[in-house]
């Protein structure tokens, strides 16, 4: 660049920075919009050329203004987008270091935890954190060392916007990859998300746990209880992801606890069969009692059928845990049709696979009901009277010495 052009560019930058320093928030808003329109997508050398080798001066001002005003949300999204121009520029290492040195990561994480800040602003903060995490392992470690996993997980759990939730989830997944020092922390953070009240967050967390599980290689015992509790969800997408994760986890050390827990869910404890308070209202009295408990029972039966069909070893373990009498009990549960249907389908698989199971179930049901069962187990609950249901619910079937090999 010739000396005259350099002088012109420098004068332009000096005027821009003076206008920024002396301007109120509305003036700065216009400057930010202009900056974004003219510089989005530029490389680091191009930004330096635009700012006469002094782009860092504007980045420093921009970062300082954001840190001073983010609590009140003054054009926060514009600020974050403008910072993103620097952080996402090709050859951005210098800008990245400058942003981190003034506490940029901590500020972004604090933004995620502020209830008064808009969801779209939090989504933009997550974009910047994703850019930082993508810069390499040491940057992922910095985010985790700044209690980032907890802040991002809480944002995912509490957010009301799906876009924000999905960005938080992607960031957690990114932090688990290529980050051996903190991958287990991310894994435990995802497990802590499972009991949250947001179905979308639960679904995303379940999907990501499956990915991270392969990275950490070892299943933490604390995953079993919240995972089984998710089978109570009235959201089918959450149930689906829970069952998918259960299928993955039976290959880890938590397998015995998972199988035992699934079988136990087929016969809920009496103290668990209570009408939820929300169902006590007059307009809700037509709903079944303890709906979540019986939804969980149905999902457990579905999971058991899926696992049993996966191989003789799993079906043998389920039989040893007394799955057949528990399934008979669930078939006799006339409080929830889907529990009966799913239990009948699971029971059919064991009956058609193991002759000894067929013999005991035939005896427990009697000729007439057993004939109806074999004819169409999926609609058996519609053809069963109360006496037959009570007999199944109180069955004393005990099957011993069942080989894993159905032959």
Topology, element by element:
Elements: H1 3-22, H2 25-39, H3 44-50, H4 55-69, H5 76-87, H6 93-101, H7 104-112, H8 119-133, H9 137-145, H10 148-158, H11 162-176, H12 183-193, H13 199-216, H14 224-229, H15 236-249, H16 255-265, H17 291-308, H18 312-320, H19 323-331, H20 337-353, H21 355-365, H22 367-375, H23 386-393
Helix pairs in contact: 2-5, 4-5, 5-8, 7-8, 7-10, 8-11, 10-11, 10-12, 11-12, 11-13, 12-13, 13-15, 15-17, 16-17, 17-20, 19-20, 20-21, 21-22
Q: What does it look like?
A:
With 407 residues, this protein is mostly helical. Helix content is 68%, strand content 0%. It is elongated. The chain starts with a helix and ends in a 14-residue tail after the last helix. The model is unreliable at 271-287 (pLDDT under 50).
Radius of gyration: 29 Å
Summed up, the helix count is: 23
Shape: elongated
Low-confidence stretches: 271-287
Largest sheet: none
Helix/strand order: HHHHHHHHHHHHHHHHHHHHHHH
Helical content band:
55-70%
- DSSP strand content: under 5%
Which structural class do you get from the secondary structure elements? Answer: mainly alpha
Q: How far apart are the termini?
A: 85 Å
Give the total of beta strands. 0
Mean pLDDT: 91
